[in-house]
Amino acid sequence: MVLRKDFLWGGATAANQCEGGFNEGGRGLANVDLIPTGEERRKIIRGQKKMFEFEDGYFYPAKEAIDMYHHYKEDIALFCEMGFNVYRLSIAWSRIFPNGDEQEPNEDGLKFYEDLFKECHRHGIEPLVTITHFDCPMHLIEEYGGWRNRKTIEFYERLCQVIFNRYKGLVKYWLTFNEINMILHAPFLGAGLYFEEGENQEQVKYQAAHHELVASALATKIAHEVDPENQVGCMLAAGEYYPYTPNPEDILLAQKRDRENYFFIDVQSRGAYPAYALKELEQKGIQITMESGDTELLKEHTVDFISFSYYSSRVASADPEVKKTAGNLFATVKNPYLKTSEWGWQIDPLGLRVTMNSLYDRYQKPLFIVENGLGAVDEPDKNGYVEDDYRIDYLAQHLQVMKDAVELDGVDLLGYTSWGCIDLVSAGTGEMKKRYGFIYVDRDNEGKGTLKRYKKKSFYWYKKVIATNGEDL
Ligand code: P53
């Protein structure tokens, strides 16, 4: 057998993309609630347009999403039927602390996740919990400026204290920040950052990143204190940069682009700002305000494992004539060897092996693939059944490569959770139409539909994959 016997197989979701129930159980408003579908979405995500209240004429998909808030029992039973032994989900911060800065948590919110985790365990499923997946209470953004403000560390620390104690024995795998490097590309999602005109955005982003990095180290510290069984991971939006040509200029640039992402994980896993980052910040005139004790904290509380999302490799070209035409929030040069998805994301299974090897070489810690998958349009038949061979092909190719990285290269891999195991709202576009799931949810881009769940062809395929521990793809 290629994969370890206790390999963790499952799927991943994020609160804001599936829960809905945005004003139920005492939940406060969060940045993610206020991001509509349509043209303006990207600007808002990037912190370049302010929409701090619901406005007429817009559709806000997170308000109801797929209503997992009320359907979680049914959904977990379906995950169990597929054979999941892990389910990655995130906690909505504003369910636990509606404003973010209260002294006391909201019991309804705490109880909701307690029930959910217990439901997982009843089904033999270990929860893997992302503490923040692109969400930040709106009050923290309006009152403090989100992660630009050092005080946010305190509020996050309070959240961690509460959830680690309350869920002790129920949760042992934790991720501190989803795709922490996303702060550079989608700062309103990643850190609740909105920029005033004329502001030095890079300065703000790296200062906010420092706060998140300190918060992540604190979370790791507290998690280990509360329960030595706790395993804490960092989480990177990964995908190796390839040089567009063998021109040394392209090679150097690809290395630089990779380092923009590695920077975060270097701090979280190796425990210090790397030399290249210090030099780069200095050259850009960015000054990070640190407090005494930060350096020691980062050094002493590094993560236990490295988790990452992988959708695609990326391409760097130093030639200004070569245009960036493909990709997603990570705009990249088109790779002529790769096909793209319906949303223009380049598909590169082998790039997963490259990426896994780079991460394992660099950090020498167990890896965990916590997102991977294909966003595609599904056409259900009259019974709601979707024959999604395209999704099966995509996943089978990636899983084969994942096994190669383990078997042929010796990478230590803890598990695999495919993204959006049940159809949910897209983070990038807000659409429902961009589906990743093994389970079809009857809901469309405008929020119409019965919310009924249907098993796709890939449901039965993934069940077989898990039952054979990945032997039969
Ligand atoms: P959607 C861009 C590039 C890489 C990862 O994305 C990304 C994004 C955001 O568009 O986000 C992660 O839904 C993220 C998930 C997200 C998933 O990838 O735009 O952690 O929340 O849904 C897929 O197709």
From TrEMBL:
It is an enzyme of class 3 (hydrolase). Its EC number is 3.2.1.86. GO terms for biological process: carbohydrate catabolic process. GO terms for molecular function: 6-phospho-beta-glucosidase activity. Keywords: Glycosidase, Hydrolase. InterPro entries: GH (IPR017853), GH_1_N_CS (IPR033132), Glyco_hydro_1 (IPR001360), Glyco_hydro_1_AS (IPR018120). One of its GO terms (cellular component) is cytosol. The active site is at E371 (nucleophile). Belongs to the glycosyl hydrolase 1 family. This is Aryl-phospho-beta-D-glucosidase BglH. It comes from Jeotgalibaca dankookensis. The gene is bglH.
